[in-house]
Structure prediction request, 112 residues.
Amino acid sequence: MESHCRGPDTEHPLTGLNHSLRRLGMEIHVQTEDRGARERRIETQVFCDGRVVLSTCTEYPDSLNRQQDRERLAELMRRQHFNVIRELETRLVRQADGARHGSRSRQDPGRR
Prediction:
């Protein structure tokens, strides 16, 4: 007879983090999930127009005991989530600055 009881290894993942951003006329959604004790990783995906445009995964540290370190796991998730948002915003600012400087140099090629 097969048992359907959940042991400690199949514990439910932590609740994920979600943020929607509007930058440079684009709707961007950042989602971070705990993939659970079985996969032992944190995954962050960035969506633009419903498509995944960036995905990053981090394995749990070997020292992490998922049951005892739920607060530590939640902190790792927050750190990854907000690091991705900061990196994304930095890239978008550089892109916008590059577009502004590029358009200025096309209007006045002698000015740099």
About this structure: The beta strands are 17-23, 26-34, 41-48, 51-59.
